[in-house]
């Protein structure tokens, strides 16, 4: 059952991480139940097989210990984030550290499975095994429900999380909104003046000042995979106004850093190029002078320092689910 719970936690975590719609709540709940069920199962493993394995003094027993400690640490960080008891330090948020430990845990999990080969048998699905699995999952679900209720009753920050599990930071106050970027997509050394910015839309140069004169308020929440969200009134121009009724399988939007994402052309009516927020120009860390606003999508899709918008013959899904740079 350990293997099923780990796979379930990893899969639901990735889905929850990537979805910016209300469906994320389902994936987040499944992820939490799997993680907390792992804690329940860990207690039984420590009393049983782990204790026996340590007495045998095998060399690889310390890998097993490390695997177990990583599982506990990963789940603990998840609980700290969801309750709001600890947000982390700087860019190292509790949620990001939770993700990083999960990725470190993955090869150890593969080793754990490969080093203990066992063919599945129908006998493994007897009534006792099914009942035991049900008890573990029920305990995990009960812990999740108790955690959510306790956070609300105690007035913890976790009691008012968004459906993605993110905490609100700096809504309608851009100065308080974080300036994080996806992995190593760092801000250009200098973005220069908006009047000098090179923005290529379908092969034509677009004047940023001209965009600013056409911008209108667009209310949208930026939901970062780092575990925070912030709603702003973005001064933006609909992308449809710039590309008209042209046709192609997808549209590719590229940053001055080389970072890019492709979107289905059918989504163009929900994409905007922002030059400011609340009547003020964007800050450099927030993508000045031009950034993409993509309501309903998570932070990695909100491309900063946009320099190019082009039609593309490739389908939008022919790319990694998450950028690798």
Rg over CA atoms, rounded to whole Å, is 23 Å
Number of domains: 2
Q: Determine the structural class based on helices, strands and strand pairing.
A: alpha+beta
Beta fraction = 15-25%
Low-confidence stretches: none
Q: How many E-type strands? A: 13
Average residue pLDDT = 86
| Percent of residues in helices | 40-55%
What characterizes the major β-sheet? 6 strands, mixed
Which series of helices and strands comes N to C? Answer: HHHEEHHEEEHEEHEEEEEE
Count of DSSP H/I helices: 7
How far apart the termini lie comes to 34 Å
Please tell me what the overall shape is: elongated
Structure description:
The protein is of the alpha+beta class. It folds into two domains: 2-160, no CATH class; 169-312, Alpha-Beta Complex (Sulfite Oxidase, Chain A, domain 2). It is 41% helix and 18% strand. It is built from seven helices and 13 strands. It has helices at 2-18, 24-55, 61-83, 94-114, 127-153, 208-214, 239-243, and strands at 88-89, 92-93, 167-168, 200-201, 204-205, 216-223, 228-238, 250-255, 260-264, 272-277, 280-281, 291-293, 306-312. The strands form three sheets. Strands 3, 6, 7, 10, 11 and 12 form a six-stranded mixed β-sheet that branches. Helix 1 packs antiparallel against helix 2. The longest helix is centred in the first third of the chain and has 32 residues, at 24-55. It is elongated, with a radius of gyration of 23 Å.
